[in-house]
Amino acid sequence: MKTVHTVAELRAQVSEWRRAGQRIAFAPTMGNLHAGHLKLIAGGHKLADRVVSSVFVNPLQFGPTEDFGRYPRTLPDDQQRLDSVNCDLLFAPAVEEMYPNGRDHLCKVTLPHYSTILEGHFRPGHFDGVATVVNILFNQVQPDVALFGEKDYQQLLVIRRMVSDLHLPIEIVGVPTERESDGLAMSSRNQYLGPEERRAATEIYASLSEIGDAIRGGRRDFTEICGLGLQRLLAAGFQPQYLEVRNPRLDPPGARDDAFVVLVAAFLGKTRLIDNLVVKL
Ligand code: PAF
């Protein structure tokens, strides 16, 4: 697998493939790759002739008190992992390559609604940072199809909405969450957890599953069932930020909805974990 660090090199390689009539899939990441990321590459191979991935820890999507500085940067390991699943090209730019005019007065993509609810409420500016960098990456790579993990449910919705609003000719594909054997959703942030926290972390998926079962069993008193889930998380040592049932568009669920998403964000010590469960009746 080839690794390039500049937009010029990236464009040269992608245009060569395009001239040969090949279809391009793209899986953007922030690196520190796990099995969930590798599934994006495998999914890309099913949909296109070439798969491009990127590793870029995007400063724009981290708040001032968040973990930008300590976010794990493991490029040599990432290269090996991508190579093992036959990724064709890795784009690993420096911050200056992505934001050559600096970040002051940067042109940004902003999504008024999605950037203020749920994750957006607790991480102001986060989704504008995500949408902006993904839009830049889309312009650099110009893929036919791009793959994103469903673990970041709200992020996937943000990207779908951006692509639709800006008329970007890119198909967006969601890839199901990859879980550890005890249910914990794979995440680069899991490695921040100490051994005891790691054991307690299983309560996140257990709580989501319990709520999912209650909904499948006919309960629609979402506030009550989420209240029980919150108690369960508190008892396990979490500091929850939200645990809510929404419809698939992330609006409050209505009487006629037959699909729901249970979404959670909670701190365990200093580590913030998110997860979700889609419940289709
Ligand atoms: O999901 C991620 O890893 C990031 O938010 C993304 C989409 C690569 C943008 O930086």
Structure, explained:
The protein is of the alpha/beta class. It has 2 domains: 2-175, Rossmann fold (3-Layer(aba) Sandwich); 188-280, Pantoate--beta-alanine Ligase, Chain: A,domain 2. Helices cover 38% and strands 20% of the residues. It has 10 helices and 9 strands. The chain has helices spanning 7-19, 35-47, 75-84, 95-98, 119-122, 126-141, 153-165, 195-200, 202-216, 222-235; strands at 2-4, 24-29, 50-55, 89-91, 145-149, 171-175, 238-246, 259-268, 271-280. A 6-stranded parallel β-sheet has the order 1-4-3-2-5-6, sandwiched between helices. Strands 7-8-9 form a 3-stranded antiparallel β-sheet, with helices on one face. The termini are far apart. Pantoate binds next to strand 2 and helix 6.
The total count of helices amounts to 10
The assembly state of the depicted protein chains is single chain
Q: State the CATH architecture of the largest domain.
A: 3-Layer(aba) Sandwich
CATH fold title of the largest domain: Rossmann fold
What is the string of SSEs from the N terminus onward?
EHEHEHEHHHEHEHHHEEE
- For the CA atoms, what is the radius of gyration? 19 Å
Total beta-strand segments: 9
* Gap from first CA to last CA: 43 Å
Bound molecules: pantoate
Q: Specify the overall morphology.
A: globular
**Proportion of helical residues:** 25-40%
The chain-level structural class is: alpha/beta
Structural domain tally: 2
Order the strands across the largest sheet as they lie in space.
Answer: 1-4-3-2-5-6
